[in-house]
Write a structure and sequence with these properties.
- The chain is built from seven helices and ten strands.
- It is of the alpha/beta class and about 240 residues long.
- Strand 9 and strand 10 form a beta hairpin.
- Helix 3 (about 90-100) runs parallel beside helix 5.
């Protein structure tokens, strides 16, 4: 289970996350939606221990910065960060050794599913951005984490990899993992989510539980919030002309 309680993150006087609280239970897929700059990536980086914050974040009851929490966490960043001079296979061996994983068969299965097995001898710097993203996914999943955090995971992937990753979402959920997906592409996750949080200006503007009929689809609610807020904040046009 992933639990976030009263998390606030500031950059100087700018409040990127303002007292955010939510949870993703075992066997659930939670999604964070919002336009660019809403604060999604900031809360993701807080969860994964990359940023300092006030509040509390727990992974299966352990403080997120603890070693035990890190053993149970898988993180796929928005921008893949691979080692230039390690091959694909060496990346996975490095992760397996770090997490003391002996199951090489699962590693190969991941590489084959994402069409990287035939690229296993290529260096990180020789991979395209899409291949680097697929390698990042394999590295994050090879130790079979119970809490998995994806930040814009489908960007740059080819159609086959998108299909496989969506299957992986379902498999993680069925296996009891807690999955958090940050995205601004609603249609990419519309069939997989259990609870959705819509962010605006560092806060949650709305929370929607899948299956609860409130008269609006997730897409309708999203655009009502994001476009409505944009209109409210837009400068008033002078009569008879455009804004200067």
């Amino acid at each position: 289970m992933l639990s976030i309680s009263g998390v606030t993150k500031k950059y100087g006087k700018t409040v990127a996350n303002d007292n955010i609280s939510f949870a993703v239970g075992d066997g659930q897929i939670g999604i964070l939606l919002g336009p660019n700059g809403a604060g999604k990536s900031t809360i993701i980086k807080c969860i994964t221990g990359l940023l300092r914050f006030t509040g509390r974040i727990e992974i299966n009851g352990c403080e997120n910065t603890s070693l035990e929490a890190k053993r149970q966490l898988g993180y796929i960043p928005e921008m893949p960060a691979v080692y230039d001079l390690l091959t694909v296979e060496e990346h996975l061996e490095f992760i397996r050794r770090a997490y003391k994983v002996e199951d090489e068969a699962y590693t190969r299965q991941l590489l084959e599913r994402l069409e990287l097995w035939d690229k296993k001898d290529k260096l990180g710097k020789e991979l395209s951005k899409g291949m680097q993203q697929k390698l990042s996914i394999c590295c994050a999943l090879c130790h079979k984490p119970s809490v998995v955090v994806f930040d814009e995971p489908l960007v740059g992937l080819d159609p086959h990899a998108i299909k496989e990753l969506k299957s992986i979402f379902s498999e993680l959920k069925a296996g009891g993992a807690s999955v958090l997906i940050s995205t601004h592409m609603i249609d990419s996750v519309e069939d997989y989510w259990d609870v959705a949080n819509i962010m605006m200006n560092g806060r949650f503007a709305a929370t929607k539980v899948n299956g609860q009929d409130d008269g609006k689809t997730l897409e309708e609610l999203f655009f009502e919030i994001t476009e409505g807020t944009a209109k409210e904040n837009a400068p008033e046009l002078p009569k008879g002309g455009a804004a200067q």
